Amino acid sequence: MRIAMLIAISLAACSGSSSTSVPSDEARKLLIDRNWLDVWPTSDRERLHVYRFVPTMGGGVYQDRTLYKGTFELFKFKATGDEIHFDLPETKTKVQSPYTIDAVTGPEPFDLRLTIFESPRGPKVYYGIKAETDPHGMQLEESLAKLRGE
Description:
The chain is α+β, with helices and mostly antiparallel strands. The protein has one domain (19-148). Helices cover 21% and strands 38% of the residues. The chain has helices at 2-14, 24-31, 138-148; strands at residues 19-21, 35-37, 48-54, 59-65, 70-79, 83-88, 93-104, 112-116, 125-128. Strands 1, 2, 3, 4, 5, 6, 7, 8 and 9 form a 9-stranded antiparallel β-sheet that branches. The protein is globular and about 40 Å long. The protein starts with a helix and ends with a helix.
């Protein structure tokens, strides 16, 4: 028992970041109008995946891209505090997935982590910035332009 406890404590200490689950009523609000990235790119060729959930535009967008090139897919969705219902018109696929949002300390510059347990596209884990409220989707492009040196 003591050895198992020491192993659990060691693993927790090595994880490098702490997290706190966000209550489901707040999670739905945090999901909306925010860029959710799987990585913060460190080069112009690094691939990143981005989700944006924007009810005012009638749905959301998923991007598979680098700083200069990529593809996108529009989708419709409905979100509660603990589930996202995806409707992907291109493939006529519907996916219902539980999700969680956690307050985290990194990786930099992120302080939120979105986990989509049955993600219909890309990875299951994405990161966001709580201070970002980006109803028009321009903050991501401005941040990526800075990385390009523009």
